[in-house]
């Protein structure tokens, strides 16, 4: 039995080795590349733009607030590595009008060249219990967090296919891997990005275009920007031990981009499932305990 298991593992490793040239993307060289960052005036988008600029990229920042964009532009320009680099700012809502998004991205490409990498960071969040969240909040979050990534991606994909190269990054969340209490409006929009990314990756991989889904936790934004080097083209990009475990647990039918990644998923899935069940049990216990405490408190208030 042991020999059979060893033979299976060896065969699996050999298979991965044979197909690895087909699944391992070449790193995208950032010096001189045109990187578009939506939601780039603050937070994760701003930090990713800075990191790319430090490596010699040309940056297009897209966000709604023009004043914030101009402030961010000045801050990013401090990190230039040569006098040819440019930071272009475009004020537009990427979630409302596709034709407008398409037009501004055409303008950006006319000025800075074809888009080599698109980083979809535009997003927002509303928290609260399902029945307490306004219905229009569900619609707004789906528009911003999902369509706000669909529209820019749709606007650049044709050119990327023509050039046979490109990277598209979707910034999801750990709440896009695991449904959490209070995030009934937010989590589904981030789950949707994963479905979009997996389907897109199947379509565009023959054109040397690779998709990355980033799952940042609640961490300081500079830390996330430093740790998630999405330019390499990995499909899953996560931060920290919890993020690593969730990426493996939720790998499912996601594509892999290295032999090591595939082996880690196969070997660790069972162990992490046990740990995951412990976490789920703990979450349920916390929710149940809080509910009982609230009901007890409300009962006490009524009796007084």
Order of H and E elements? HEHEHEHEHEHEHEHH
Strand order of the largest sheet: 3-2-1-4-5-6-7
Shape: globular
Count of separate DSSP helical elements = 9
Q: Which structural category fits the helices and strands?
A: alpha/beta
What integer is the average pLDDT?
Answer: 81
**Which percent range describes the beta-strand content?**
5-15%
Q: How much helicity do the residues have?
A: 55-70%
**If you compute it from the alpha carbons, what radius of gyration comes out, rounded to the nearest whole angstrom?**
22 Å
Strand tally: 7
Which stretches are low in confidence, meaning pLDDT under 50 for 5 or more residues running?
A: 221-233
Biggest sheet statistics = 7 strands, parallel
Beginning-to-end CA distance, first to last residue: 68 Å
Task: Please tell me about this protein's structure.
About 4% of the residues have low confidence. 56% of the residues lie in helices and 12% in strands. Strands 3-2-1-4-5-6-7 form a seven-stranded parallel beta sheet, with helices on both faces. It is globular, with a radius of gyration of 22 Å. The N and C termini lie far apart (68 Å). It is an alpha/beta fold and 304 residues long.
Secondary structure layout plus pairing:
Elements: H1 2-23, E1 34-38, H2 43-54, E2 58-63, H3 66-77, E3 87-91, H4 98-112, E4 117-120, H5 135-163, E5 166-171, H6 187-204, E6 209-215, H7 221-227, E7 236-238, H8 240-249, H9 259-303
Parallel strand pairs: 1-2, 1-4, 2-3, 4-5, 5-6, 6-7
Helix pairs in contact: 2-3, 2-7, 4-5, 5-6, 8-9
